[in-house]
TrEMBL record:
The lineage of its organism: Bacteria, Pseudomonadati, Pseudomonadota, Alphaproteobacteria, Hyphomicrobiales. PANTHER family: FLAVIN-DEPENDENT MONOOXYGENASE, OXYGENASE SUBUNIT HSAA (PTHR48083:SF19), MEDIUM-CHAIN SPECIFIC ACYL-COA DEHYDROGENASE, MITOCHONDRIAL-RELATED (PTHR48083). Keywords: Flavoprotein, Oxidoreductase. Residues 138-216 form the Acyl-CoA oxidase/dehydrogenase middle domain. SUPFAM superfamilies: Acyl-CoA dehydrogenase C-terminal domain-like, Acyl-CoA dehydrogenase NM domain-like. This is Alkylation response protein AidB-like acyl-CoA dehydrogenase. Gene3D superfamilies: Acyl-CoA dehydrogenase/oxidase, N-terminal domain (1.10.540.10), Butyryl-CoA Dehydrogenase, subunit A, domain 2 (2.40.110.10), Butyryl-CoA Dehydrogenase, subunit A, domain 3 (1.20.140.10). The keyword Oxidoreductase applies. Residues 240-378 form the Acyl-CoA dehydrogenase C-terminal domain.
Length: 416
């Protein structure tokens, strides 16, 4: 059945249904064992392999480059569908799709060609940017230093989402002169130790733990070209989270509808001889579904802004380019708290349509709220409305990037 048939609304393009049909059988297989994996803490190595084999990781590459030529709205709609199956898998691939945007936007033609080829060859990329500890905002404690005809990498990263499943780790560090530098590191290289120590109560299967690097030899061609990440990266990465939330909402809506349909026990003070006919229960189901529908619609509208930002990369006018990137960031910021509140409320409200048996761990209904709450804790949403308000009142553009670390004042108080 199409999204329209299911009342989730039309996809973002005329060809979307044909594109989605390529992957829906894989999504269904992933969905079938999602609760079992959550209960057993089974990491989705196999499931990510299914997606890779189906070419899902090549979505953004043009057909002549070995991909599907998906637009950003098409990609984000597919991420909603994948998140409906298992939000952990979406999060594990977030860095891969972000790096793909880096490659598509790069002006370093030789480097771009190499990595387009590797992505087309179904190689995947994980994350190695975030650090914990005393590193200052905008700096990395991870070091890349020149050593003869190669580089040596030393340091530690955390929140390395997806790296345990990936072929490469994309990371940021500091060189011997204190300047930022990035590189791609083979996950299986000597001196790379990927540790599954992420202990969050949600998104537990994303392998978002520690990676340690000890004298890892990096060939010069694996050092990223200068220029930083793609201009709309902040908007893109946050929109992946919103698409994931929208998918969680869809899954929660489908589950509560199914469980109400199947339920035979009623309360004496209810309104009908069957729960499936009780108007108050049906109202709860409708509210959960409405939250999922609205969230998906918001995500697809915001995805149009990221597509405009991507297309603006070819604009020779720097002011128009900057405006397109700023508007994309603002549209996502305007969406964050709305989508987050809708899904956090929906994943709590669904229990009101069911009895106490809905709390049984075997149903896995608690994972929806746990996963949504964990995703919503990234890149704190409390700052988003202020950024939007500052633009609306004062015309202040949003920050291009977000960083975390210690301030200079805090760092001065930390003993050596």
């Amino acid at each position: 059945m199409t999204q329209i048939d299911l009342a989730w609304g039309a996809g973002p393009s005329e060809r979307y249904e044909a594109l989605a049909q390529e992957f829906r059988p894989v999504f269904a297989r992933i969905r079938a064992t999602a609760v079992e994996r959550d209960l057993a803490r089974g990491l989705p190595h196999e499931e990510i392999g299914w997606l890779r084999d189906a070419g899902f990781t090549t979505l953004r590459l043009a057909p002549e480059q070995g991909g599907f030529g998906a637009s950003l709205p098409e990609l984000f709609n597919l991420l909603i569908e994948l998140s409906e199956a298992d939000s952990n898998v979406t999060n594990a691939l977030r860095s891969h799709f972000g790096f793909t945007e880096d490659v598509l936007n790069s002006s370093a033609l030789e480097w771009r060609a190499v990595w387009l080829g590797r992505i087309a060859n179904r190689e995947t990329i994980g994350s190695g940017f975030s650090e914990v500890g005393e590193a200052r905002i905008g700096a990395f404690s991870t070091r890349l230093t020149r050593h003869g005809d190669h580089w040596l990498l030393n340091g530690s990263k955390y929140y390395t989402t997806g790296s345990l499943f990936a072929d490469w780790i994309n990371l940021g560090g500091t060189d011997e002169n204190g300047q930022p530098v990035g590189a791609l590191v083979p996950r299986q290289a000597p001196g790379v130790d990927v540790i599954d120590d992420w202990d969050g109560f949600g998104q537990a299967l994303t392998a978002s733990g520690t990676v340690r690097f000890s004298d890892v030899v990096i060939d010069p061609e694996l050092v990223n070209p200068p220029g930083g990440r793609f201009a709309y990266s902040s908007a893109f990465f946050q929109l992946v989270h919103l698409a994931t939330l929208a998918g969680i909402g869809r899954a929660a809506a489908n589950d509560v509808a199914r469980l109400v349909r199947e339920r035979t026990r009623i309360y004496s003070h209810g309104n009908a001889p069957r729960v499936s006919e009780d108007p108050q229960i049906l109202q709860v189901v409708g509210r959960v579904r409405g939250a999922a529908y609205s969230s998906g619609s918001i995500v697809l509208r915001a995805a149009e802004a990221t597509q405009r930002a991507y297309e603006a990369r070819l604009d020779s006018n720097p002011e128009r380019l900057a405006a397109a990137n700023a508007i994309a960031e603002l549209e996502i910021n305007q969406s964050v708290n709305v989508v987050t509140n809708l899904i956090l409320d929906a994943t709590t409200l669904l229990f009101d349509a069911l009895g106490a048996s809905a709390a049984k761990r075997g149903l896995g209904l608690d994972r929806y709220w746990r996963n949504a709450r964990t995703i919503s804790s990234h890149n704190p949403r409390i700052y988003r409305d202020r950024v939007v308000g500052d633009f609306a009142v004062n015309g202040t553009p949003p920050p291009a990037q977000y960083r975390i670390g210690t301030s200079e004042t805090t760092a001065e108080k930390v003993p050596a």
